[in-house]
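Changelog entry: the Polysaccharide deacetylase family protein record was regenerated in this release. Current contents:
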Amino acid sequence: MSAVPILLYHSVSDNPPDWIAPFTVRPRVFAEQLDDLVRAEVTVVPLRRLLAAIRGGPPLPARAAVLTFDDGFADFYWTVAPMLAERELPATLFVTTGAIHPPGGRPNGSVLPPADMLNWRQVAGLDAYGVEIGGHSRTHPHLDTLTNQHLSDEVVLCKHELEDALGHSVANYAYPHGYNSAAVRRKVQRAGWDSACAVVNAFSSTADDTLRLARLTVRADTPRSVFRCWLRGEGAPDAPTRDSLSTRGWRLYRRARARFTDQPPGRPDD
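Regenerated structure tokens:
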């Protein structure tokens, strides 16, 4: 069971809005991290290849990693994609469909604060180029606090919107903020999603749960030494892991708060 870092990025920018700045990596640092991957002889594989290995398919290279990006920031199109293409690295982009700009209009709505987001033409272009597009809900809520109908909207309709826009099926989902529960995972599976990424801040592996894949969050303040440790399979626990008592308690608190407010508190470490 080899440790596989599924690296989670958000924005890659020199001038992010304040709300996403702690989760934004500067382009210069991102380039260094990609070069560190190459120098460390880590093979970046598509998410589907990790999933195949988990299900008993062809084994992964001795040192493998997966690149994922959440939300759908416009800098993926202008900054990230060219860097990946230069190094011939695959990646999965999980988009919040309500934050994507439709042709000639404004986004359909999400709880994300204002930011420069992708438009549907760019999403389709990235898909055509070979970037895997996945779902990240419609409005980016805390899924584990929602009613059944609201949860269906965020899981099922997100899939329909992406498939209508791209003209083909989409397979992989990522939970906003990483928040999920047994009920959420069942809903995702029944909606036809093949896998789902959480956060967990642990290494994935061929023993991981395909509906709760562990990822490592790359933040603005992630030291290069820590990043290099991850590439060696060091510095984090291995999945699968169980929810801690604090995680379960935080979920109960957010559910209780959601009954009295429209928006659950805070942006977590996702």
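Helices lie at 27-39, 47-54, 75-87, 120-129, 148-166, 182-190, 224-231, 245-258.
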